[in-house]
Every structure is written in C-alpha cells, then in structure tokens.
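Many introductory courses stop at the sequence. We go one step further.
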Amino acid sequence: VEAPWPPELATKTIYLRNICRNPRGKLRWAVGVDEIGRTVIGGFSDSAPHWLVAGTTGSGKTTALLTVAYQLTQDPQARLVLLDGKGGASLAPLANAPNVLGPIATSVEEARAALRWVWGELQRRYASLAQGDGDLGPGLCVIMDEFQEFAEDPYVAELLRRIVLSGRAAKVHCLLSTQHPTIKAFGGQSAIKRNLPGRLALRVLDGRASEVVIGASVPRADALTGAGDAYVVTTRIHRVQVAMVGREDWDALPRTEPEIPSWGDYHSDLGAIPEPRWSYSPAEVACGLVAAYQGWGRVRLLSLLQRIGAGAGSIRADRLLSLGRATLSALSELGYELCQASYIKNQLGG
C-alpha cells in the first residue's frame, strides 16, 4: 500500500554531487535515492531505449530532466539534441554545454529542422550497419521538454514516431517530458507511447494520467507528494526522491560553441522522409511475429532464424522482433487477437 511520507521523514533536497560524484557513463545516470538510501540508476539500454518523464506543476519534472541531461553532458558516449516546448525556459541551463550538438529548438519550425537532422543521422547510421560497420560513434540523445507542444504538428509527430521506432539499433534515443501525460499528447501517434518503455513518473493530476505514465493501474503516481517524489519504471519499479543539480555545479559546467550552429532547413513534404530500406522474406516476418507472440528475446529469435536457414544477424533480428511486436500491437488496436502461434504459421503457408 503506497502512502505519502510523513513530513518528519520526508527528504526533499538531495544533491547529485552527494550521491554520485562522477557520471556513470555508458548513457546511464543517477536518478535519485530510494527509501533505504540506495542510489537508483537509469539509462538508455536495449530494454529501455527511450524514456518518458511526466509530472504536473510542482512535481519536480524539470529538475529531474535537468539532472539527467547534466550527467549526459559529461558522458563521452553521449551527444545531445535539445528541444524545449517552454520556449527555452526549461532547458536554458544546458545552452552551450558539453556534448550538446546544436542550439536549443524552441519553435515548431526549429523542432522540425532538428528532428529532420536526427532522422538523417539515423539513416546514415543504418547505412553504416548495412555495410558491416558496427562503430556508430556516441549515442544520440534527443531530449524534449513539453514535447506535446511540438507533437501537435503532424510533421514533428511523424518524425518522432519514426525515430522512436527505428532508433535503438542505431543508438538514437529519446527522452520525452510532459506535464500532461495523455494519449492526445502524443500527437495521435500511439506508437510513440508504446515505444517509451523507460518511465520516470512524478506526481500527476489523476488516475488516468498516472496509468499513461506508469503503464499500469498501480502504483498511483497521482498519490505522490511532489517536489521530486517519483517512481522509476523499467523492468522493476522504484520509489525515489529525485536528485537535483546545485547552482555551483551549473556554474562550474564548461561552455563551448555547439558543433552545429544551425539545424538548417527541413523538407515540408512528409513523403520526402525516406523510411529505412530493409527487405524481409515471408519466413523471416513469420519468425518475428511468432517470437513477439511468444515473448521471446533476440537470442531465441536468432536461433529460430538459423533453423530456417535465414542467416540473420543481431541487428536484423532486432528489427524483425520490433516489426513483430508492432504488428501484434496494431492487430490488438484493430480488435483482433491471435489465439495461438500455429495460426500464424498456417496463415503464412507454413
């Protein structure tokens, strides 16, 4: 049973420098401290390639977002693209910080251009993978505060959808933040929400918003006390007090001119955005669908692909598994349910 902390037991001010003297690196960060004083670590990984941060006014959402971004600015394996739906007010402390690639996008036009650049970089990385080059360089981290302000634009919503669907294998990650975690906030793109498995849930207004950010009916984020009281949701759920970065730490952060002075122009035609060009045999598609239905991981899918002589590598198996999961999700949204894996086999001719 979850309950608010009694005032005499609550600790609302925990500085990052006191719990984590050095950034963890490898696209990981210290979130805060749990009930018994342990530091809780989050990060971009195969199981959580993208994150959603949500919390209403006074919940500590902006502080949490800045704490994550501050640590990524000191991670040699990270490069940041920043978009701020509050006109730059939230992410201003990160301007010209290390690892920040370009200017903070604060308008829809700038968001379009920045995400179009990210999409182009993602395409370049896929081309390198197709040529057998596994060295993709640092992870590319897209951080968007109040992303719903941008996602109302169809072009931004479509680019964001494609990035979260295709980003993991190319080491392109998203951390999206909002005060209002509703289905509408995702610009009508339910695929975006489904592909944000990492969650940092601060206090929200009601049970419906809690279910969107937690991904389940319990625990209830609307029962949190605010000011950094949060749940971290990955493969487990942790109750944490989010750490904050002190003013002196921000003042000591070195500043440098961004590598990309301007995000440039964007293509106004959605059809001009190319999809990654991969071709699959019907047998490979069937294997990906069966693996998704059975809840298998990449290793077991690879074994199945080898048994049918497909000879797929890890990257191709990842894509087939993602395709299978997306297909099952789409069928579910249309009201269809697969009752047994043999049905798939029969429908695809064995």
